[in-house]
């Protein structure tokens, strides 16, 4: 800690990060051990975070992330969307297909930004807010593959007809962006994705990741 930082705020943020990394919550004792501070400090931190609905405690006394975090999280999507739009526009115009940024939302993939090409006679209508299971569609499959990191994976996912009949998709995951799990891809009306599209969506995913760092 430096003279310009707040130790209390730092500890509070560490509490939120610890709680976010567990599905079962943590007790005061567990938090005390992980933070290296006494239980009284942890009680004060939790009480303050509870006042802002950032933390809740269940009947067993385990602390969990509160619904207030969701309200903060809703403000993240517009910021991410704004940062991603230049790369998505370039991708859509280059490939001549609808480009999208998709983020993980629970067990689903959520399209948060979509850009359609301006010069094509027709393209797939794909709207921001569209949801689908992570294990269907190129966007979700790219995210799942990045989690598993198989050695023979090319770095992008290709699918056909999984979300819309006659439509093919290609997507690459966002890598190296703390707190953001998602992918960048395109969807097109074609029986197969042209060979150059996979590497191109990887480039676009790197551009978006750089903009978010």
UniProtKB/TrEMBL annotation:
Signal peptide: none annotated. Residues 6-67 form the HTH iclR-type domain. Residues 68-213 form the IclR-ED domain. The keyword DNA-binding applies. It comes from the Bacteria. CDD domains: HTH_ARSR. Coiled coil: none annotated. Keywords: DNA-binding, Transcription, Transcription regulation. This is Helix-turn-helix domain-containing protein. It comes from Streptomyces neyagawaensis. The lineage of its organism: Bacteria, Bacillati, Actinomycetota, Actinomycetes, Kitasatosporales.
